[in-house]
C-alpha cells in the first residue's frame, strides 16, 4: 500500500520506450486504479479514525455487504487490487528514475547560461572602458572639427549670399540691356523671373538681401510699368477709349481704317507685356479692400491692363459722384448705378471681341468682361459704403436706395452675367446695421401695404371674377396682393450672400403671414353673423388661397435650400427636438408648416360654421317633413304617379338655394369640402330624426324612398357622379324599408339565427347593406308595419 499523502499526486509521464498500445493500456489501467483508490480513500474518510483496518472493513462492507452470494467477488477483487498495486509500483519506479535526470539537465543548462553571462559582462566592461578612452582622445579633434564645420557653413552662407546678390545684379543688368535695345518683352520676362525669386526669398531671414531684392524689383517694375502704361494709353486713345456713348463702341467695331491692324497688333503686344507685370505689380499694389464688416469674398486684384483701361472711367465716376457736384445727389442712387450699367454695356462688345482673344491666346482663365465689371463694381461698393450711413434713418431714402440697388443687381446678373460669387451690392446690404434697418423698413412698408389692401373697397372682390377659367380659386384682391407682396420680398432677398440673412427674411415673411391671418380672423369675427355672406366667403377663399400657395412654395428649390440651412442652424443651437429635426431632414415637414397648420385650422373652423348655419336652416325647413304620417300613406299601387312629399319642399328648396349660393361664392375645392361635410350631417340627421323616429307602412316607405332617391340625392348630382354613396345611412335604410315582405322575413330570420356571425354579413351584403350594423338593421326592420299576420 502507498502512503495516504502520495495517493492524490498526478503521475509524471514516463519516458520509457513503450509503443502506443502499451501506453494506452497503461493509461486506462492507471485511470481505473486511481478511480479505485480515490473511491477507497472516500470510504476511508467516512470512518471515524481513517486507520487501515477500518478502511479495509469499510471497503469490503461496501463491495460485499450482507449478501453472502457477493463473497464470490472476493477473488476478483483481490486480483484487481493486486494488479492495481503492481501498476502503481511501476509508475513510482518510473517517476523516481526520470526526475533526477531532468533536474540534472536543467542544472547543467543553468550553469552554462551563467558562464555565458559572465563572459558578456566582462566584454561589456572592456568595451565601456575602451569607448571612454577613445572619446577622451577624440574630444580635442571633435572640437577642432566642429569649429571648422561652422567656418565652412558660414563661408557657404556668405557665398550663397554673394551668389544671390550677383544673380540679382545680373538680372538687373539684363533688364537694363533689354531696355536700352528696346526689347521690352524680354525685359518684362526677366522682371517676372526676378519677382518670382523675390516671392521665394520671403522665407529667408536675410532682411537686407530681401530689401535689396524688393527695391530692385520695384525700381524696374516702376520703369517698365510707366513705359508700358504710357504706350498702352496712347493705343487706347487711338481707339477713342473709353466708349462713353453706345455709338462709339459700334464705330470702333464697324469702321476699320488702314492703320487698324497695326493698332490692334500693338494693343495685343502691350496688353501681353502688361500682363507679365501682374506678378510684380501684386508685390507693391495692395487691392482696395472695404472694412471686414462687409464680409466681401476674397478675390485677386484686377489684372494690370484692365486696371489701366478702367482708370479714365474711375476718374469720371469720382468726378461726378463725389464731392459737391450736382450729379452727386444722395437721393438719386439710380444715377451712378445706371451710369455703371451703361459703361459695362458700351464696352462689352470690344472686350469680348478684342481683349478676350488676347487672354485666351496667352492661356489666361480671366474673363475680360467680368474683370472689367468687377473693377467698376468696386466703385459702386465704395459709393454705397459711404452713402448708406447718411440715409440709414430716412425710411423713404433708404427704401429707395434698396429698390434701386436690387434693380441694378438684377440687371447686372441677368443681362451682363455677373456671378453672384463675386463681390456685389448684396454684401453691403448684408452688413449688420444696414441689414437690420432693411428688415425694419421692409416690415414697416409691408404692414402699411397690408393696411391699405384690407381697407380698399375692392379688397374682397376678385380681379378675375368675370373670367371663369382664371377665377377658379375666387381669390379676393387683398389675398392676391398680399401673396404678390411676399413673392416680391422673396425676389428681393433671394440673392443675399449668406443663408443666415435669408433665414431672417424668411422669419419676416412668416411673421407677415401670421399678421395677415390675424387680420383676416378679426374681419371674419365681424362677419360671423352672416357666415354665408359675400365677405365671409371671400375671407374663406383668401385663407384657402394663402394656404395653397405656401404649400406650393414649400416644394420650391429655394425654400428647400433654406430648409436645409435652417436644419443646420437648429441642430447647432439645439432648438428643436430630434423628432422635429428628423422631419425637417426627411422633408416630411417644411419651413411653412406652422403657418399652413394655423391657416388650415382657421379654414376648417370657418367651413364648420357655414355648414352648421346651413344645417340649422335645413333642420328648420324639415320640421314638417319630420311630422309626416308615414304610417298611413297610400301604397305605390294606389297612386297613379309618385310625387314629392309637399312637406319636403321647404327642406329641398332651402338646400338647393344654399348650395347654389355657396357654389358661386366659394372656390371649387372649398365648396367640395363644404357639401361633403353638409351631406355627412344631413345623412345622420335624416336617418336618426326622421327614419328612426317613425314607423313606415308600405306607402310611407315607398314615399321616403322616392323623396330621397329622386329628389334629395339628385341635388348633389352636379357635384359627383353617385351622390347616394354619400348618404349611406339613408340609402340603406330605404333599401331595408322597401324590401318585399318575403325577403324581409328571410333576412330577419337569418339575423336572428346567426346574431353577428359571418353568414349575417353575407346576407346583408346580398341585399346591398354595407354600412349599417346588424343591430341597426334589426331596428329598421322592426319599423316596418307591413308584416303578414302569422298568428303569433
Q: What does the secondary structure layout of this molecule look like, with pairings?
A:
Layout lengths: L19 H26 L6 H12 L9 H108 L3 H17 L6 H32 L7 H9 L5 H17 L1 H7 L19 H18 L11 H29 L6 H24 L3 H22 L8 H5 L2 H24 L21 H17 L5 H28 L7 H20 L3 H17 L4 H8 L7 H29 L1 H4 L22 H17 L2 H24 L6 H15 L15 H10 L3 H14 L3 H9 L7 H9 L10
Helix pairs in contact: 1-2, 1-3, 3-4, 3-5, 4-5, 4-8, 5-7, 6-10, 7-10, 9-11, 10-11, 10-12, 14-15, 14-16, 15-16, 15-17, 16-17, 16-18, 16-20, 17-20, 20-22, 20-23, 23-25, 24-25, 26-27
Task: Give a brief rundown of this model.
With 792 residues, the protein is mainly alpha-helical. It has helices at residues 20-45, 52-63, 73-180, 184-200, 207-238, 246-254, 260-276, 278-284, 304-321, 333-361, 368-391, 395-416, 425-429, 432-455, 477-493, 499-526, 534-553, 557-573, 578-585, 593-621, 623-626, 649-665, 668-691, 698-712, 728-737, 741-754, 758-766, 774-782.
Characterise this structure.
There is one protein chain. Helices cover 72% and strands 0% of the residues. By secondary structure, the chain is mostly helical. Among the domains are: 286-430, no CATH class; 437-603, Tetracycline Repressor, domain 2; 626-783, Methane Monooxygenase Hydroxylase, Chain G, domain 1 (Up-down Bundle). Helix 10 runs antiparallel to helix 11. It is flat, with a radius of gyration of 54 Å. The protein starts with 19 loop residues before the first helix and ends in a 10-residue tail after the last helix.
Amino acid at each position: 500500500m502507498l502512503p495516504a499523502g502520495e495517493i492524490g499526486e498526478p503521475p509524471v509521464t514516463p519516458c520509457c520506450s513503450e509503443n502506443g498500445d502499451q501506453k494506452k493500456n497503461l493509461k486506462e489501467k492507471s485511470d481505473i486504479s486511481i478511480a479505485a483508490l480515490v473511491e477507497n480513500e472516500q470510504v476511508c474518510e467516512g470512518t471515524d479514525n481513517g486507520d487501515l483496518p477500518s478502511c479495509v472493513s469499510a471497503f469490503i462492507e461496501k463491495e460485499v455487504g450482507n449478501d453472502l452470494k457477493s463473497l464470490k467477488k472476493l477473488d476478483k477483487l483481490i486480483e484487481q487490487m493486486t494488479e492495481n498495486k503492481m501498476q502503481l509500483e511501476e509508475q513510482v519506479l518510473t517517476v523516481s528514475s526520470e526526475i533526477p535526470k531532468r533536474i540534472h539537465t536543467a542544472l547543467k543548462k543553468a550553469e552554462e547560461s551563467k558562464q555565458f553571462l559572465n563572459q558578456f559582462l566582462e566584454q561589456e566592461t572592456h568595451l565601456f572602458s575602451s569607448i571612454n578612452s577613445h572619446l577622451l582622445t577624440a574630444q580635442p579633434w571633435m572640437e577642432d572639427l566642429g569649429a571648422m564645420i561652422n567656418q565652412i557653413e558660414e563661408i557657404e552662407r556668405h557665398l550663397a549670399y554673394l551668389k544671390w546678390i550677383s544673380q540679382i545684379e545680373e538680372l538687373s543688368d539684363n533688364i537694363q540691356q533689354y531696355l536700352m535695345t528696346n526689347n521690352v518683352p524680354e525685359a518684362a520676362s526677366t522682371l517676372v523671373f526676378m519677382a518670382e525669386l523675390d516671392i521665394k526669398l520671403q522665407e529667408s531671414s536675410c532682411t537686407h538681401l530681401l530689401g535689396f531684392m524688393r527695391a530692385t524689383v520695384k525700381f524696374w517694375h516702376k520703369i517698365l510699368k510707366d513705359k508700358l502704361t504710357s504706350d498702352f494709353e496712347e493705343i487706347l486713345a487711338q481707339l477713342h477709349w473709353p466708349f462713353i456713348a453706345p455709338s462709339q463702341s459700334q464705330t470702333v467695331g464697324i469702321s476699320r481704317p488702314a492703320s487698324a491692324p497695326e493698332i490692334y497688333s500693338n494693343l495685343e503686344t502691350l496688353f501681353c507685356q502688361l500682363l507679365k507685370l501682374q506678378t510684380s505689380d501684386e508685390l507693391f499694389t495692395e487691392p482696395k479692400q472695404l472694412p471686414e464688416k462687409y464680409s466681401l469674398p476674397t478675390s485677386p486684384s484686377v489684372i494690370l491692363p484692365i486696371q489701366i483701361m478702367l482708370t479714365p472711367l474711375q476718374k469720371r465716376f469720382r468726378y461726378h459722384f463725389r464731392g459737391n457736384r450736382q450729379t452727386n445727389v444722395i437721393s438719386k442712387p439710380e444715377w451712378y448705378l445706371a451710369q455703371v450699367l451703361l459703361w459695362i454695356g458700351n464696352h462689352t462688345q470690344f472686350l469680348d471681341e478684342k481683349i478676350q482673344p488676347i487672354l485666351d491666346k496667352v492661356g489666361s482663365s480671366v474673363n475680360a468682361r467680368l474683370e472689367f465689371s468687377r473693377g467698376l463694381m468696386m466703385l459702386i461698393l465704395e459709393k454705397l459704403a459711404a452713402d448708406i450711413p447718411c440715409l440709414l434713418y430716412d425710411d423713404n431714402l433708404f427704401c429707395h436706395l434698396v429698390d434701386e440697388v436690387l434693380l441694378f443687381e438684377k440687371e447686372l446678373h441677368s443681362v451682363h452675367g455677373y456671378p453672384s460669387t463675386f463681390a456685389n451690392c448684396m454684401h453691403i446690404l448684408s452688413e449688420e446695421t444696414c441689414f437690420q434697418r432693411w428688415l425694419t423698413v421692409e416690415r414697416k412698408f409691408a404692414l402699411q401695404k397690408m393696411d391699405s389692401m384690407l381697407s380698399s373697397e375692392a379688397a374682397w372682390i376678385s380681379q378675375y371674377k368675370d373670367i371663369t377659367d382664371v377665377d377658379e380659386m375666387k381669390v379676393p384682391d387683398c389675398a392676391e396682393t398680399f401673396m404678390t407682396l411676399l413673392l416680391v420680398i422673396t425676389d428681393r432677398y433671394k440673392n443675399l450672400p449668406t443663408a443666415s440673412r435669408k433665414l431672417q427674411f424668411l422669419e419676416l415673411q412668416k411673421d407677415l403671414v401670421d399678421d395677415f391671418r390675424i387680420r383676416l380672423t378679426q374681419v371674419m369675427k365681424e362677419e360671423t353673423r352672416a357666415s354665408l355672406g359675400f365677405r365671409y366667403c371671400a375671407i374663406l377663399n383668401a385663407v384657402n388661397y394663402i394656404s395653397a400657395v405656401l404649400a406650393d412654395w414649400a416644394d420650391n428649390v429655394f425654400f428647400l435650400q433654406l430648409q436645409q440651412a435652417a436644419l443646420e442652424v437648429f441642430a447647432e443651437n439645439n432648438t428643436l427636438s430630434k423628432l422635429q429635426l428628423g422631419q425637417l431632414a426627411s422633408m416630411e415637414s417644411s419651413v411653412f408648416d406652422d403657418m399652413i397648420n394655423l391657416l388650415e385650422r382657421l379654414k376648417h373652423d370657418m367651413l364648420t360654421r357655414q355648414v352648421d348655419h346651413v344645417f340649422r336652416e335645413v333642420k328648420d325647413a324639415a320640421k314638417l317633413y319630420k311630422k309626416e304620417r308615414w304610417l298611413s300613406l297610400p301604397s305605390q299601387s294606389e297612386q297613379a304617379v309618385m310625387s314629392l312629399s309637399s312637406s319636403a319642399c321647404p327642406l329641398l328648396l332651402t338646400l338647393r338655394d344654399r348650395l347654389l349660393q355657396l357654389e358661386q361664392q366659394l372656390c371649387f375645392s372649398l365648396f367640395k369640402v363644404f357639401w361633403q361635410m353638409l351631406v355627412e350631417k344631413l345623412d345622420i340627421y335624416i336617418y336618426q330624426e326622421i327614419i328612426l323616429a317613425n314607423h313606415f307602412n308600405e306607402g310611407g316607405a315607398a314615399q321616403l324612398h322616392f323623396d330621397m332617391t329622386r329628389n334629395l340625392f339628385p341635388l348633389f348630382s352636379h357635384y359627383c357622379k353617385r351622390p347616394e354613396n354619400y348618404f349611406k345611412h339613408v340609402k340603406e335604410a330605404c333599401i331595408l324599408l322597401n324590401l318585399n315582405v318575403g325577403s324581409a322575413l328571410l333576412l330577419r330570420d337569418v339575423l336572428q339565427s346567426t346574431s353577428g356571425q359571418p353568414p349575417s354579413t353575407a346576407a346583408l351584403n346580398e341585399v346591398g347593406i354595407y354600412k349599417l350594423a346588424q343591430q341597426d338593421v334589426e331596428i329598421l326592420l322592426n319599423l316596418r308595419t307591413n308584416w303578414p299576420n302569422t298568428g303569433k
